[in-house]
Write a structure and sequence with these properties.
The protein is mostly helical. It contains seven helices and five strands, in the order αββαβαβαβααα. It is 46% helix and 10% strand. Strands 3-4-5 form a three-stranded parallel sheet, with helices on both faces. It has a two-stranded parallel sheet with strand order 1-2. The relative contact order is 0.14.
Length: 164
């Protein structure tokens, strides 16, 4: 669970996440950001680990689902790793990312105004146990992996631009 670097100042959102998942049969890894103090959320449930920061590339390959705000980095990272998502949009383009991922079948979107511990727990259970989210997420990851790298795209673009 993460709320990125811009929307991580609302510790109540992290508290709600810890409460929601405390009795679930999941291991929770929560990152609160470099400018937050994880001890402000203590005591943690037995199934939770709370850190300032863990690189997503280290964590995502072992995740069954990601709960986040819908920022571009976390959204794309989860898609690239084929990880189902529960998106709780907070602002900016988060709502569009949540809607697109939900439409693609890779995520469950929970609007902040209707967020409760019960519906967050239910969404995480569904994202983890309903194989359709995993299948859609894996398909998306395969599509991303098949895309050309940045060097190939730049080379192709250069061939289309007339010399001046």
């Amino acid at each position: 669970m993460t709320f990125g670097t811009l929307f991580n100042s609302n510790l109540d959102l992290f508290r709600l996440g810890l409460e929601a998942l405390a009795d679930e049969s999941v291991d929770v890894v929560m990152t609160v950001g470099r400018d937050q103090d994880p001890t402000e959320l203590a005591p943690f449930p037995a199934n939770a680990r709370v850190e300032k920061f863990i690189p997503q590339a280290e964590l995502l390959p072992s995740c069954s689902a990601v709960v986040h705000h819908g920022g571009a980095g976390t959204t794309f990272g989860a898609l690239a790793h084929g990880v189902p998502q529960v998106v709780i949009p907070q602002g900016a383009d988060n709502y569009e990312h949540a809607a697109m991922c939900e439409s693609a079948g890779t995520a469950i979107a929970l609007l902040p105004e209707s967020l409760t511990p019960d519906n967050l727990a239910a969404a995480v259970r569904r994202a983890v146990s309903d194989e359709t989210y995993a299948e859609a997420s894996r398909r998306c990851a395969q599509e991303i992996a098949a895309m050309p790298d940045a060097v190939s795209v730049a080379t192709a673009l250069r061939s289309w631009v007339p010399a001046v």
